[in-house]
Amino acid sequence: MTNITFLNVSIAKNFLNETLQVLNKTREGPVTVSNAPEVPLWLQHAMLTLYLTLLALTILLIAHYIYYARHARVVEGTLGDPPVDTPLSIIIPVKNESIETIINAVRRLAELQCSNAEVIIVSDDPPEKVTEMEKALAGLPVRVLRRPNPTGYKGTALNWAAEYAKGEILLFLDVDSVPPPDLCSRARAVGEREIVFLGWDGYAAVKTPIAALQLFLYKYLLYYVAILGRHNTRHPVFALGSGIALRKSFLKEIGGFCNCTADDYDISMKAYLNGGRVVYLPGPPVYVEVPAGYGAFKRQYARWTYNSAYLLAQYASKIPKLKMPFIHKLSVFLNIITHPLMIITTFALTVASLAMSYMGILLPPFHILILQMALSLLALVQVFYVYKLAKQDGHSFAEVAGMLAKSAALLLALSPYLTFYVILGLLKRRIRWYVTPKGLAVLKSGALGLYEISILATLAIILTAALYVANWLLAINAAMLLAIASYVFFRIAMPSSQLGRVLRL
């Protein structure tokens, strides 16, 4: 028999009573430090109301992710009877891409031995570049088309190429995509009035901290949660930019791709609004290259953020008119609003926390405390469900928690920059499309630019000012934010932009 002795933990009665008394005070209002600066009561109430609203929205966002994470599991593809040998056109848009990248894309498709299919490269490059491309691709099964008037965004190039395509079914791929072996059969399974999406996962041409973080997020939050979780709950799925197929007749019916940067989400909304649907067909995903450099990642994430905000402004009033159950309408809304809401709440909560620290608020009112506790609990539940997915690949709980913490830190450091793009999207202001560089080319941009230096300088000034006026609560908060930003820029961003530290995978 083994004797088990438990630690005898005692809590002083006075300490417990004082803690309960402090918590009881929060029922009447915030608990502030003794030397708190004078702040108008209306401003304090406004700040706390804003903080409460942001907490509630963040809880809603995490809760909907947890719901899909609970249903995230790989399902076997069932195409039923083999699709007929319908003529298929695979369209790949290119601009400012290296010849080697384009050749590799065509060769990958040639290895699939997809019968009765054509590959079209639609280029917006100068005539001399297209001539060089045609010479390099001679002997490969591909047609190269150049738009005579290469204006507008990617969507206009896709619409133009679709007019010249011979196939009844159109399959759109990015030049850096690695297609699954059953690409053609799954594309040909598309219905008359639907868009087929083949799923996404990531790969990296080079190994960097940014690349490692994205590969983790692509697999366990994008592929498993946002795609498989939605599919398994039979909730609406949105197609992403590479690996989508639809019939030429349906593309014309819904008006084609938009002349905007959000062409993939826009075409999905058009399908739903016109009584069609977007279908994820289970099977191996399309692998897309994640930007391994910090600068390329920042630009791509800014574009994705803008796209979601643009779609929200474009379609928010039309979502209630969708012919689908209310819960599906809510799912569509949350899908579109995820990036803008996540970014705005992160930025606004950061500003609100600094403002509350300045006002000397040690503890917010009781109802806000309850929401803070609920948010912390939901965050732990989210980590647990992501861990359940990742442990199948040998990831430990500490690794999963570390990856999610790095992701949160990166989002916090970039939230002011990304908030600017949310505003541009909501105002429907056009932005410039930057082609994401491939391979080692993504590492040419530096890590510390004007934005990064401005963030560090601003936080350092706030910390210095707080120390000067002996506002220790504000100083602690500013010091924590400065430490997070410094970690992101010097430990994640900078190593991701230095060639000397990069190893090929």
From TrEMBL:
Residues 89-254 form the Glycosyltransferase 2-like domain. InterPro entries: Glyco_trans_2-like, Glycosyltr_2/OpgH_subfam, Nucleotide-diphossugar_trans. GO terms for cellular component: membrane. Keywords: Glycosyltransferase, Membrane, Transferase, Transmembrane, Transmembrane helix. GO terms for molecular function: glycosyltransferase activity. The chain crosses the membrane at residues 48-68, 332-356, 368-387, 407-427, 448-468, 474-494. It is found in: Membrane. This is Glycosyl transferase, family 2. The lineage of its organism: Archaea, Thermoproteota, Thermoprotei, Thermoproteales, Thermoproteaceae.
